[in-house]
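User: quick one, sequence for these tokens?
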């Protein structure tokens, strides 16, 4: 192996949101930082590049929002923005993970969410209000709901661009097509990283390493082994480069596996979406998240989930898994003219696969479904819908009665043509299993002891998400633990210098 003549205090593996936050945080503390990106330049940014930018954080009200989003007084007067407290965020996280989330990590995520957003804003990351997907106009005011009112400007593309610009301004080196393959230790401390580049394998000395290079969702063998054989058929929504390298390196270095290794974030996505994330079509353009306004049926023509169990922010990450269980990993979202104008913008994109007909009978003729069962399902559903007022921006309690599964909110009879069907399948976003880490990103062994010099962030940290997650929390978790891991790595490096 050749040895590069470079001198770095900290090496960060990965170049997405979590990794770049770690690099900026470490550089801010005065450390010399190298970022290793396995992907080529034109495919940089990991899963963060593909996100729609919605980021969940705690805030006390509109004044907190205005500190990071520029709003005129006139714009502010037209907004109704309920506070989203740290306790509410924590409770939402615990509720959707069925109280399995590690309380220490969960509290750190929620407590550090707003300080991290303010820190990102200070470093040039631009935010804007998420009017389209998280507000509803009523009596001239925008009523925000769901605890997710803010997104990064120009979605994930803008986030990655601005993080890289800041990294460049700070003098952080980034190597592309540079794959970290091994963490070396000396005297039980991190000492260097083996890096594979086009010109061969190199040993890069460093006192500390931050692993922030994603989970194993793009590794077909690992996801079938850990999550289940049916996941072989899942579309990979994000980067093709998240193949578990960081996890393998961490475990080899003595890290304890932790969290929900049999779980993942998955969604209902267009049935004809690319098999891996397409960097020429950035953003979350293939998702299909307006299912609470309609119903979903499989090829047998029957429903299989309560589409109105909760806001889509709290169900979409687990309903992808339910779609995967259906025949041919396929389902159809069904809507009528009453709600068509309320569907999210992805339903109007040219990439969206859809079928339209003037009657349910004609719609069934266009779909690969059991026609009789489909029409029976529609008839049964329509007869089960109870009277009540329909409010798409709140849990309206407008439900069905006497059918299984029920629809607990937003139940409208599907009876006004034209009728619409959108075929969906399961897309995997990221795996939940990771390594055990402390509240500041320090990687821990099976004995709960720190591995000196090794830190983790983003999808690498296990124990936060189980079964499900509140929308926007993945991006926030990456930023929070990226910032903390970078600062912790810098403190560790400084402590080594002080002891020599």
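Assistant:
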């Amino acid at each position: 192996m050749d040895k590069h003549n470079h001198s770095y205090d900290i090496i960060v593996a990965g170049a997405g949101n979590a990794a770049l936050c770690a690099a900026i945080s470490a550089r801010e503390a005065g450390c010399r930082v190298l970022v290793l990106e396995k992907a080529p330049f034109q495919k940089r940014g990991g899963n963060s590049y593909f996100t729609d930018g919605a980021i969940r954080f705690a805030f006390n009200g509109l004044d907190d929002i205005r500190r990071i989003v520029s709003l005129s007084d006139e714009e502010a007067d037209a907004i109704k923005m309920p506070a989203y407290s740290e306790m509410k965020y924590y409770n939402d996280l615990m509720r959707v993970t069925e109280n399995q989330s590690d309380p220490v990590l969960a509290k750190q995520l929620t407590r550090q969410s707003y300080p991290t957003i303010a820190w990102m804003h200070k470093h040039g990351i631009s935010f804007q209000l998420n009017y389209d997907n998280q507000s509803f106009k009523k009596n001239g005011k925008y009523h925000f709901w769901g605890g997710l009112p803010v997104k990064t400007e120009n979605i994930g593309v803008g986030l990655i661009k601005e993080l890289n610009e800041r990294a460049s301004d700070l003098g952080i080196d980034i190597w592309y097509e540079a794959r970290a393959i091994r963490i070396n230790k000396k005297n039980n401390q991190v000492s260097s990283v083996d890096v594979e580049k086009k010109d061969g394998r190199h040993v890069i000395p460093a006192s500390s390493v931050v692993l922030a290079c994603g989970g194993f969702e793009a590794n077909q063998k690992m996801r079938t082994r850990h999550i289940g054989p049916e996941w072989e058929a899942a579309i990979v929504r994000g980067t093709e480069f998240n193949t578990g390298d960081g996890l393998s390196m961490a475990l080899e270095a003595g890290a304890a596996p932790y969290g929900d290794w049999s779980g993942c974030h998955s969604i209902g996505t267009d049935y004809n979406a690319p098999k891996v994330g397409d960097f020429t079509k950035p953003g979350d353009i293939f998702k299909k998240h307006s299912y609470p306004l309609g119903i979903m049926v499989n090829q047998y023509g029957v429903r299989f989930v309560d589409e109105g169990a909760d806001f889509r922010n709290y169900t979409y990450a687990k309903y992808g898994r339910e779609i995967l269980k259906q025949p041919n990993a396929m389902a159809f979202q069904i809507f009528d003219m009453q709600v068509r104008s309320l569907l999210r913008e992805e339903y109007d994109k040219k990439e969206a696969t859809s079928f339209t007909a003037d009657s349910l009978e004609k719609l069934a003729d266009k779909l690969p479904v059991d026609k009789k069962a489909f029409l029976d399902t529609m008839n049964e559903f329509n007869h089960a819908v109870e009277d009540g007022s329909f409010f798409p921006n709140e849990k309206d309690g407008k439900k069905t009665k006497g059918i299984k599964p029920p629809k607990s909110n937003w139940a409208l009879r599907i009876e006004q043509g034209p009728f619409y069907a959108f075929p969906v399948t399961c897309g995997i976003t990221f795996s939940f299993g990771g390594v055990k880490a402390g509240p500041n990103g320090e990687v821990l062994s099976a004995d709960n002891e720190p591995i000196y010099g090794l830190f983790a962030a983003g999808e690498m940290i296990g124990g936060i998400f189980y079964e499900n997650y509140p929308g926007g929390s993945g991006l926030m978790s990456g930023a929070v633990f990226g910032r903390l891991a970078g600062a912790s790595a810098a403190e560790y490096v400084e402590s080594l210098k002080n002891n020599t």
